[in-house]
Amino acid sequence: METVQQLEERVRALLAERDQAALRALLAEIRPSEFVDLVTDFSPEEVAILLESVEEDEWRADILGELHPEQAADYIQTLPHDEAADLLEEMDPDDAADVFAELPEAQAEQILIQMEPDEAAELSELAAFPPESAGGIMTPAFVAISPTMRADQAVVALRKVAEEAETIYYVYVIDADERLLGVLSLHRLVLSRPETPVGDLMVSDAVFARALDDQEAVARLITDYNLLAVPVVDEDLRLIGIVTQDDIADVLEAEATEDIERLGGSSPLDISYRRAPIGLLVRRRLPWLLFLFIAGAYTSSVLKFFEDISIEVVALSFFIPLLTGTGGNVGSQTVATLVRAMAVDEVQLRDVRWVLMKEATVGVIMGAVMALVALGRAELLGVGSDVGLVVAITIAIICVWSATVAAVLPLILKKLKVDPAVVSAPVITTLVDGTGLFIYFTTAKLILNV
Amino acid sequence: METVQQLEERVRALLAERDQAALRALLAEIRPSEFVDLVTDFSPEEVAILLESVEEDEWRADILGELHPEQAADYIQTLPHDEAADLLEEMDPDDAADVFAELPEAQAEQILIQMEPDEAAELSELAAFPPESAGGIMTPAFVAISPTMRADQAVVALRKVAEEAETIYYVYVIDADERLLGVLSLHRLVLSRPETPVGDLMVSDAVFARALDDQEAVARLITDYNLLAVPVVDEDLRLIGIVTQDDIADVLEAEATEDIERLGGSSPLDISYRRAPIGLLVRRRLPWLLFLFIAGAYTSSVLKFFEDISIEVVALSFFIPLLTGTGGNVGSQTVATLVRAMAVDEVQLRDVRWVLMKEATVGVIMGAVMALVALGRAELLGVGSDVGLVVAITIAIICVWSATVAAVLPLILKKLKVDPAVVSAPVITTLVDGTGLFIYFTTAKLILNV
Asked: What is the pTM of this model?
């Protein structure tokens, strides 16, 4: 099989030769998701040329649906307003709304005017929902029927809309006011007697999401109930869309990415790393770096405070990076495990007691082992057994202290309704650096009598 | 709505009262996924009592399918072999295989003997696949038909197996040797003329996975092609199972959890945090902690090497934690973003050049800002402008150096076929700690002329 890289080189060659016919033939054969991988390194102008080389709107609409919304919006902006309008109409409505939301306001207005009135209304309604809500990820392309319809009539109705609906594996039953009455799976429908009214076949206490529910809650609903799609209702309980299972993978991946970036000690990028400009990376990272520097600045004060001791016993300073490093490492291990367990709903606030016990015990065991190793290292360095003892005792205390702080802090943040993932490895490191030094020199004072 | 905690209290009260009838009524109303949340804090004995209080095997089988395989195996082990066999037969085969794999070998043998021969064969075959492969997560409960069957006959065939198949949204077409010929969606089937042979309706170049493919690759296949299920074939291309879309969310979550735990600086737990005993947590974390201590031990040697300077200019040592801390923070930010971008296939090995340029530039900008801030801090501490200058220059160099190392290392590991997530925040911190100190004292030597 051809790799993406080989494919990319072939396409670049054809682009250079301006060989439209060959390009068209090549592109006709690849899937939208392959196209997306192919063009990650291409400039917006090159992407536009590729998209122009295939004439079918349907193909282009499929590709735009898979591209990152910003990338798709870049392309839409290069088109005349009427062409842009046609293309947005051709796309799946939920994807179109995401792209639409990325367009500059003036241009969005212009394009909207060129669209069919009902399509325009649908699009601007969808684009108005927060992007990370049920409304923001739903599609209005579903099949809804009345409860008095018979099973065979429902199949006929389905046949008519099969092309446009995002999933026809569920049929939704609504009343005259469009309120959701129940849901019916396609297999239930086709495996039933033709003359049965769908009202008798449907499941009437269907799970649903509200338009403003968080996308993560919708994802949990779909995975918990093993659904192919979940209906979304507005404040009057009217059915306004569905979220399908294939959107869920994206939601889960995006949430995991956010947590990982936070845990690494920066704010989430929200767009792909590849497309993130240097300025954005700096804006997401520098504030945290400054905050951590300022928060950590007291370490210098602690060291200055204990200046006399470190002049008297200079060997103490040799171990500073090792001690603060180990404290940071224990904290980082604990925080990562705990924040993840909280993200997948395994640990809640009420679990604070056993979490604390567990982590403190782990800290004690690891602290004991590390103390022995530290004694060995001090011996090896030839700094005298007194200093070795101070280092060993300190490292044991630091292990327990770090594990405890790292166990409690994410739970407290959750209580304060702050994302627990902001207690990143860097934050916990900074926190235990200075306190660790304080423990170190205090222990030294007591044991060395200086 | 009742919270899990309230539900838990109610159940505990009923357990204490040994009120079987009330327990049964309560449990009949809750979903399997709710049951799982409910019993996370319960002892195996309590879980067994709850499961016993409902008589239907089907309900118990559903619950066991949702429980963590180890937890389900705990319960299975309390049953007589014939009851255990019945229950495993009742479960979805892929779930049953996961549970079966957790049973002690002797007991597994005994239970297998009590099962129907074909169910026993199916189960032991499934349990033999690596748990993280396509074979390990697939189910053999699919619908396969011959290409000469007509559409209406296929619907009749479907009706017969609808109860047992995991998904009937796809029908697979196989030849006499069980080799996969094509796939047909249910909606295609019901929306076609009754007399059409399914061979004419099917898509013949269906995507498929091989049994030993990694589960992550299968997940990408399903999400890239927007499928509800993907067929799995053995080495002779015979259809042996399907992986359905609802398994994918679990795969993606498990992979993200692994990455987060690695990035935090420990080996993945592989079981839920809640169920992880203290011994396991220590085994996963302590080796890394020791490795990092030993790897970081050279920091003491560096400090000892520069002992004369730190005695002469004791103020230099005040900034050690701040400098190593900032280096570690920059490294942690870079590594987290990059490892995640690699996990979602956004960055490959061949991207090393632009990644390096991007991160180095970010490092330069952040380094310049941090240098100014460091100057201010030195001023505040009153250590003299010479030392301030040394600190500022060092912090700038460290920012660039950390960003560069953190950008390149994950890519090199990938090249060596090691999971890039092992370059955790702690690893990068340890790496840049000692080198940072070396840069610091060398700069001091040059500028302060000591």
From this structure: 0.80
